[in-house]
């Protein structure tokens, strides 16, 4: 059974990811798709597909101190990976990275 709970807030894991997103043109398909993901996270933070804990790259665990990871499909075989956590009663979806399928597979060692 899947969890269903809206995110109170959606954030980017670091400034570089947010800056890359903000630098996209408004009409860019990728910016529109990420905006759609943000809307979906606010409706249900757990709408993505859960990645098994043993498959979470150690890089993410060390850098972001996460214990869960989900992926969300974007158009053109792109993927967005994010984590969900609570902070002082607020449920937060944190966008960690987005990339094409080839780089997604490389990051996860598939």
Side by side, the strands of the main sheet go 1-5-4-3-2
What is the CATH homologous superfamily assignment? Answer: RelE-like
Indicate the CATH architecture.
2-Layer Sandwich
- Main structural class: alpha+beta
Secondary-structure topology with pairs:
Elements: E1 9-12, H1 15-23, H2 29-43, E2 49-50, H3 58-64, E3 70-74, E4 78-87, E5 90-100, H4 101-108
Parallel strand pairs: 1-5
Antiparallel strand pairs: 2-3, 3-4, 4-5
Model description:
The chain has four helices and five strands. Strands 1-5-4-3-2 form a five-stranded mixed β-sheet. With 110 residues, it is of the alpha+beta class. Strand 4 (78-87) and strand 5 (90-100) form a beta hairpin. The model has no long low-confidence stretch (mean pLDDT 95). The protein has a single domain (9-108), classed as RelE-like (YaeB-like fold, 2-Layer Sandwich), CATH 3.30.2310.
Please tag this protein with its features:
110 residues, alpha+beta, YaeB-like fold, five-stranded mixed sheet, 4 helices
């Amino acid at each position: 059974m899947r969890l269903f709970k809206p995110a109170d807030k959606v954030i980017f894991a670091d400034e570089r990811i947010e800056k890359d997103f903000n630098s996209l043109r408004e009409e860019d398909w990728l910016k529109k798709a990420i905006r759609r993901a943000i809307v979906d996270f606010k409706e249900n933070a757990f709408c993505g597909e859960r990645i098994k804990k043993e498959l979470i790259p150690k890089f993410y665990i060390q850098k972001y101190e996460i214990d869960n990871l989900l992926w969300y499909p974007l158009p053109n075989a792109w993927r967005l990976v994010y984590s969900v956590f609570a902070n002082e009663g607020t449920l937060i979806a944190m966008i960690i990275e987005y990339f094409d399928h080839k780089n997604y597979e490389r990051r996860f060692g598939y």
